[in-house]
Design a protein that fits this description.
The protein has 6 helices and 8 strands; from the N terminus they run ααββαβαβαβββαβ. By secondary structure, it is an alpha+beta fold. The strands form 2 sheets. The protein has a 6-stranded antiparallel beta sheet with strand order 3-8-4-5-6-7, with helices on both faces. A two-stranded parallel ribbon has the order 1-2. Helix 1 crosses helix 2.
Length: 182
């Protein structure tokens, strides 16, 4: 497998995915929470004792967690501000054909995917965005690495992946984040 799993702390799925990417490239980093802070980690007030450097506000449209869809908290700004020689390209793709083509053409790189968690796992109670890593692509399915403690490698159809991306929506940062050397 490409990645050594880092179990995410609450609201730190993006930080955990980026930490796994940096670890895979042997890039020294401060861990998922510090990464998440730099990506605009926004939380409800009750998390102040656990995450003292987070932003505390009402729930943003994209949900609690990092705010990478906002320019000041973008992944590219994180890489630039921390002298990391990587770049992120955002791709919002909503067809199975184009998704498969994109993944096949880029699987040698690191790819994160932001999507609607409840749609991916058929769980109406999980109504939030979530970030996972693309581990590999099969014929009509992908293997995802979920940083959640209770999940691991998940094989899902490309059809379900596209549906989960579409439901979370482009305005909320859903889509693919292709990470390559800069």
């Amino acid at each position: 497998m490409k990645y050594t799993k880092v179990i995410q702390k609450p609201y730190c799925c993006v930080g955990a995915c980026i930490e796994m990417i940096l670890n895979r490239s042997n890039i020294i980093n401060d861990g998922q929470v510090e990464i998440a802070y730099k990506l605009g980690l926004t939380l409800p007030e009750q998390y102040r004792a656990i995450y003292p450097n987070a932003i505390f506000s009402p729930k943003p449209s994209a949900g609690y967690g990092t705010q990478i869809q906002r320019e000041e908290y973008s992944i590219n700004n994180f890489f630039k501000n921390n002298n990391i020689n990587l770049a992120s390209e955002y791709h919002y793709i909503t067809t199975e054909f184009e998704t498969k083509k994109f993944l096949l053409n880029n699987i040698q790189n690191d790819i994160m995917v932001c999507l609607h968690c409840g749609t991916l796992y058929d769980s109406k109670g999980e109504d939030w965005g979530h970030m996972l890593l693309i581990e590999k692509i099969n014929d009509d399915s992908v293997v995802l690495l979920d940083p959640e403690e209770d999940r691991d490698y998940e094989t899902v159809s490309i059809e379900k992946l596209v549906k989960a991306i579409t439901i979370h929506g482009e305005n909320n940062g859903a889509g693919f984040y292709l990470i390559k050397n800069n």
